[in-house]
Structure formats: C-alpha cells, structure tokens
User: Fold this.
Amino acid sequence: MTVTAPESGPAPESASRAARILSRPVVLNGLTVPNRIVMAPMTRMFSPGGVPGEDVSSYYARRAAAGVGLIVTEGTYVGHESAGESSRVPRFHGEEQLAGWARVAEAVHAAGGTIVPQLWHIGMVRRPGRPPFADAPPVGPSGLRVGESEATGKAMTQQDVDDVIGAFAEAAAAAERIGFDGVELHGAHGYLLDQFLWAGTNRRTDAYGGDPVARTKFAAEIVAAVRAAVSPEFPVLFRYSQWKQEAYDARLAETPEELEAILTPLAAAGVDVFHASTRRYWLPEFEGSDLNLSGWTKKLTGKQVITVGSVGLDGDFIKAFQGEGAALGGLDNLLDRMERDEFDLVAVGRALLQDPEWAAKVLGDRFEELKPYDAAAVKTLS
Assistant:
C-alpha cells in the first residue's frame, strides 16, 4: 500500500488537467451541480441572534460567482433548544432567521451556484447555561461527552429523540420551501448524530444502542424523516467522520465490514450523497487498500461521495485552530483519484476561506495566483 501526500507547489503536471477534471457537471438526485468543487461547511459565527445578514449572503455569493459549484453552508442549528451554544451561529428556524437564509440562497443562485444548508445539533458538546437558550440542558444518547465515563448531561428519552427527529425534518422542509437546493445533515465530529453512531458516547441498552446497526438507528430515522419531508428529487447529503473534535484518533469503524454496517441503513433511509470528513484526504482508511474514507464509502454503498481534508494545502486544519498557516500543496494526487472515480466531488475549506477566487484560479489555470493559507482568515468574513 502506497501513501502519497500532496506534491509541493500548487500546479498539477498539466494545469489544464485540473480544469478538465474539476469542471465536469454532476447530477445529485434532481440537482445539477455545474462542477466538482464544493465549499466545505465552516463555522463562522457572524450571525448575531442566529440571523444571517447581508454580509453572510455576500460571503457565500462571492464564492459561487468565482466558480464554486456547490456550497455547503456553515452548520446551522435546528429548532431544538439544546441544539447549540452560541447566539452568533445561525439558526435554521424562526421567521427572521429563515428570511435571512432565503436571501442567502437567492444571492448564491444569482451568482450561478447551488447551495445546501448544513443542519446541526451539537448534543453533548453544549455546555450548561450557554445561549441561545440558556436553560436547555446538554443532551445526548447517554449524557456523555467525548472522553467522559460519567454522565454530565441528559440521556435522551424517546420524546427527546422524537422531538429532534421532528426538528431536522422541519428544517429540511423549510430549506426546500425557501429555495435551497438540498440539505446536508451533520453526522460528524462528535456532535449529536455522531454521539449515537459511536460506541464511545452511546451506552444505551434500548433500540438505539448496542451494535453498529442499532447505533445507526437514530441517524437513519432522521434521514428517513427528512426524506419524507422534502420532494423525492431534493438531495439529502450526510456528513460523517471517524474523528471527533475532542478525539482525533477515534474511529467509528475499524474495518470495512463495520463501516458497511453503519452506512447501509443510512443509504437505505434516503441518503443521496455521503460527505466523508477526513483531516487529510490522501490517507488510506484501512489496511490493504489505498482508498480513503470517501473511496470506501462509495465502494460500500454505491452512493455518490464528497471527499475533504486539506485540499490544496500541505497541513491539516487542526493547526489552523492553533493559529498556524499552511503552505500550498499540489493537486495531482487528488486528480488521479478523481480520474479513478474514487470519489465524485471535492470539498475545499481553508483554501476557499482564504481566497474567494480559489475555484476560478484552479479552473482557469491561474495557479501562480494562489497563496498559502493565513490563519488570520478565520477572523473576518471576506
């Protein structure tokens, strides 16, 4: 097995190769995306009161105008009081909040792009007393935070489970009603859906806990409820990960067979596209194969997949949280994998955060204009 890291320098062996491979349209259920470049979801916290304003609309529209085919918005809280812990993270419920999101979708469409909101519940990551609903308790499958052995939050009752499922379905229906092109469900990084999926935080002994299939039941029920709440051709994306924000070495599945047991119920429930979140897209997921997590996802489910993880840069995003930048990385490894159909689309995070014109430069053979990532980019909404 060969592990090939990105090449130094941004330009591929043939610059036109990047344009040819990445500029191909792709159909996701009933949505035609004009190319293979996706803007990865990145929490920005520029929405006071949970309302995305004109600056948020412009932020996304600039990237659509510069050639990003599909935008996945920052995580946005569903209508459950325990869903979040910040008054500056956007919400996907409430008249004013949804009106703001409608303007975001309109601006992206006017710029020629497509857009889906990422629907989010943080579960036990929430800290007691935090906004936007200070009295709401942290909730999760077993009331456990990552790394805890004793519960510090509320283990969800069946009523809690039903309420959260309903909140996701209502948010998805709202997304279609106000003009979005699909939805992404955030099932990654140690947040609520992932807390059910992972044995480390799910100690339940009812139908929602136990083996991998049982631990998937909650997420699969959310997918099914969302699927029923929207039109048949409305794309439903599902983002998942092995790693957690508080445990980078955590793994949902140690083998392809374990991963298949988790993904199969989700695919059957109505997921159209999986978004497999990794820190470095070029790393193989299991011994004996060069396939990354996205590649295995496509092989096991037959569904379309989005890969992500330090695209265009030579270091993973964890260092960005520590205030570190990153040098430019090559794209040939990525393009090789796309030519082999290992995955269908590629999500770009920090490189697009740094430079709204990243897609235009890559698709237009303007690699000499790309710049290294500066961690100061997270402080503004440019």
Summary: The longest helix spans residues 158-177. The chain has 13 helices and twelve strands. The CA atoms of residues 325 and 374 lie 5 Å apart.
